[in-house]
Amino acid sequence: MTVEPFPGVVTADDPRFTALWQVLWQADTLQNPLYLPLHQIYSQEYAASAIFENRSAIFLHGDQPAFGLLISLSIEGEQRELTCFGRPILLVENRDLDTVTRKNLFKRLKSWLASMVLESGATQIYFRDYLEQGELTYFSRLLLDWGGRATPHFAQIMDLTAGKENLWRGMTKGCRWGINWGRKQMQVRTLDQHNVQAVDMEAFRLLHLEAAGRETRSQRTWDLQYEMVMAGEAFMIFGAMDQELVSAAHFSISPHQCYYGVGASRRSLFDKPIAHVILWEAMLHASRLGCRKFEIGEQLFPKQNAVPPSKKEMDICNFRRWFGGVCTTRLDVRWQGGSLALENGES
Which residues contact 232 (CB under 8 A, 6 or more apart)? Predict the structure, then answer.
């Protein structure tokens, strides 16, 4: 890394970085589990064709962290992009600071980012704004001022603080029927760091292979997902019939949020609701762990994008809606080259 040091900026190779990041992370209201340590390694392994350079940084106010960015330079052929190991860049802020202080500190972040873009030759930046408190972050506004574009990203989310009874009532009648069917017809297990074994992950991998009809990713990614469970960054729900695994799913967790990551079900049983009880048990387990939000997945709409979603994609989205919750809007902000020097550079 050849970027010149910036005053008040702690980079990922600094021994202080981890402790300072934890201060920001503990105060974050989202705590997106997809950015936990093993998940960052997973993202790099999943995008095996790219080379990543960790450019993460924390911006200090005195000796306290004010902003934190998980960010990497992705190099794939001639393309150079700033992401977080293929995922959107993550920004975490100390919102206890007053508005004037935050704006002044963000000027430092803007200069630092512009310097890194010029040094690295990056021509793309990918950031997702979760619109917390109903407003754009400074980072989004900066990318938009630089000529970036924002497109909506929709996700179906359940509020686990509503309680079991309200969650149950929020689902469709057909979804509740499917869950009750699964309770009667299937043997359901919750696997976490206390009881998971390597053979369980291998059984999941083989079920996924059967359902997909091919290997979709490396063995190392499965090993990492097993390590996530062992480290308490994830759990799994398995459903069996006649002692044979027929449906399984892997869920990433932080103290605040649970994210449905990957699932697989036996194709010959697609006419039966074998996945319903898996998701319901995951919601209950995440609630017991103290999670407040359960993200079941992305929502697509027929005319939202230039390329309409397929029937399969729409069927999956409809399935997610059956479980209730709300459709939340985020913004995917992408900068794809252009001038970094602005007359109105104040955020």
Answer: 192, 193, 253
Distance CA 342, CA 346 (A): 9
Kindly state whether residues 166 and 298 are assigned to the same domain: yes
Please say whether the beta carbons of 3 and 51 come within 8 A: no
Please report the pLDDT score of residue 2 as a whole number. Answer: 45
Q: Is residue 112 part of a domain?
A: yes
What would the pLDDT profile of 304-344 be if each residue is shown by its tens digit?
Answer: 888 999 999 999 999 999 999 999 999 999 999 887 854 44
293 close to 257: Cβ distance less than 8 angstroms = yes
For the cut 60, the answer to whether the pLDDT of residue 279 exceeds it is yes
Distance CA(237)–CA(186), nearest Å, equals 12
Measure Cα distances from 204 to 186, 243, 303 in Å: 16, 14, 35
How does pLDDT run across 65-87, given as a tens digit for each residue? 999 999 999 999 999 999 999 99
One domain for residues 183 and 267: yes
Q: What angle do CA 150, 156, 159 make, to 5 degrees?
A: 120
330: enclosing H helix or E strand: strand 326-335
Q: Which are the contacts of 343, defined by CB distance < 8 A and separation ≥ 6?
A: none
Same domain for 253 and 169? yes
Residue 1 included in any domain:
no
Distance of CA 328 to the CA centre of its chain: 14
3-state secondary structure of 79: strand
User: 266: domain CATH number?
Assistant: 3.40.630.30
**Cβ neighbours of residue 65 under 8 Å, at least 6 residues apart?**
10, 20, 21, 23, 24, 58, 59, 94
129-186 pLDDT, tens digit per residue, is 999 888 999 999 999 999 999 999 999 999 999 999 999 999 999 999 999 999 999 9
Nearest to 21, CA basis, from 79, 92, 115, 71: 92
Q: How many domains does the chain have?
A: 2
DSSP for 160-198, please give it. Answer: GGG-HHHHHHTS-HHHHHHHHHHHHH-EEEEE-TTT--H
Q: Is residue 66 part of a domain?
A: yes
One domain for residues 169 and 318: yes
